Fold this sequence. Notes:
single chain, 2 domains, alpha+beta, lpxc deacetylase, domain 1, 5-stranded mixed β-sheet, Ribosomal Protein S5, domain 2, 20 strands
Amino acid sequence: MKQQFQTTLRAPVTLTGIGVHSGDEVRLVLHPAEADHGVVFLRTGLAQGRDRMIDASHTAVTATELCTVIGDRDSGAVATIEHLMSALYGLGVDNVLVEIDGTEVPILDGSAAPFVAAIEAVGITSVGAPRRYIRVKRTVRVEQGKAFSELRPNDRAFRLDVEIDFPCSIIGRQRKVYELAPASYRREISRARTFGFMRDVERLWKAGFALGASLENTVAVGEDAVINPEGLRYADEFVRHKTLDAIGDLALAGLPLLATYRSYCGGHRLNFAVLEALFSDRANYEIVEMTGRREGSHADLPAGIAMPAYAADVH
């Protein structure tokens, strides 16, 4: 798949399902979009028949507890965007209008695989404009207790090194090192499902979360075993899902990253925080543009030179 040019979908595609936290039915339509449109959510069904456009940007994030939320409750918000954003980033889709008539992206089977299947069913096409990247120039790091996330320079690709460490024998300590590319994303990352602990269910319900969670869309971890009768899709499905989430959250940079992302016991909050740290100083990054053709991974630069692109900042 050539990555010199920006891409969009060949045709609209519709998905329906419930929100994992709200439990409400929602309809989502992915529409093709023109060059430099980026990923934008069109929130419909608001009071008085209003609609609202929300850029899929770290500047629009308003909550990171259990999921990533953009927009605000009063004027319109969309929650649990990370699996869809991960699928778009993982497959190299740059421009799409996401029309959604509810407060939360449908959870479907708890992974990004249904979004991948829907996108591939209609296909991806070039829009002819050069693809731009955010090249990380200096390491940025955020910490919270023992947990941390950081972005380091990497001129050739977007690489992730994700490590989790749960005091639970079913999960324990797992690590996934991965370089983003459409084929490997589909195979290694997209099918990893969200997970939760049975001991937390009642607390989450009382707090108004996980109202749509079930064994159909969540890996449920009991005291000494996975509750789902089919078991795990990967032996290390838990860290693969954390990698999937990180890809989706970091897509909120607005352009694909040339960087190495490293995290230990991270999550939505630290993923958002490391983007804030990156964009806090213009010296941390530059925007570069593809200058030639090359087959390869999603974020590979061509054999030629990546020229700085003097376009408006993406953040």
